[in-house]
Amino acid sequence: NFHMLSKFHKKNDDVILDSLSNTNWSKKKEKAKAKIYDHASEILEIESERLKATSSSLKVSDEDYFLFLKDFPFEDTDDQRIVSSDIRKDLSLVKPMNRLLCGDVGFGKTEIAIRSAFITVYSEKQVIILSPSTVLTEQHFESFSQRFENFPVTIKKLSRNTSKKEKQKLYDDFNNKKIDLLIGTHALFNENLSFENVGLIVVDEEHRFGAKQKNLIKNKQLST
């Protein structure tokens, strides 16, 4: 995020600078280090709990799965075939899945997420797609809607353009299992949203979310 840096101008900025010759700067550094240590401990604790946790086995028949794949308008790359198979296997296990999917734009990562969502929904679990921006949320909503057009899956979106009244209805409908797949931005970090029946969470461009935000989701899953 280097583009966020700018030259400091004392006259135009309210930031109070610390002299390196006094103790204020050292104290602030120590305070920051303590916070980092506390957060690292929290991450380790959450990961330890996840290792001991169990999850639902998410499965779909070969007939239904390959019927869904037929609607994909392109031919799979070798990587897509391998990853699709690996993720399908991981979802069928009774252990929580952590998987990082990397690839350049246009290499078919969204299709992998869509297939994973299909398996999850057909296992009677809900799916959350977490997107870093309203624009990406709109794009994902369109992509998922097109792919699930011939299947009985209810898909909704949530972003900063969603009114307060609409948000509450989305939260209520999701909590009452009336929504199979919810795509949204940071607005999904809400105490009103229940993760009780969530089987899969996809974090798009995960590097744009802080560790604290991602661990909030993991922690919320562990508590349900």
Features:
alpha/beta; 7 helices
Structural features, described:
The relative contact order is 0.12. It is built from seven helices and four strands; from the N terminus they run H-H-H-H-E-H-E-H-E-E-H. Helix 1 runs parallel beside helix 7 (211-222) and helix 3 (78-92) packs parallel to helix 4. The model has no long low-confidence stretch (mean pLDDT 87). The chain is elongated, with a radius of gyration of 21 Å. It has helices at 24-52, 62-69, 78-92, 109-121, 134-147, 164-175, 211-222, and strands at 126-130, 155-158, 181-184, 198-203. With 224 residues, it is α/β, with parallel strands linked by helices. It has a four-stranded parallel sheet with strand order 2-3-1-4, with helices on both faces.
The helix/strand series, from N terminus to C terminus, equals HHHHEHEHEEH
Helix/strand-derived category reads alpha/beta
Strand order of the largest sheet: 2-3-1-4
Shape: elongated
The DSSP helix count reads 7
**Rg result:** 21 Å
Strand element count: 4
Low-confidence stretches: none
Estimated share of beta-strand residues: 5-15%
Please render the helix and strand layout as text.
Blueprint: H1 24-52, H2 62-69, H3 78-92, H4 109-121, E1 126-130, H5 134-147, E2 155-158, H6 164-175, E3 181-184, E4 198-203, H7 211-222
Parallel strand pairs: 1-3, 1-4, 2-3
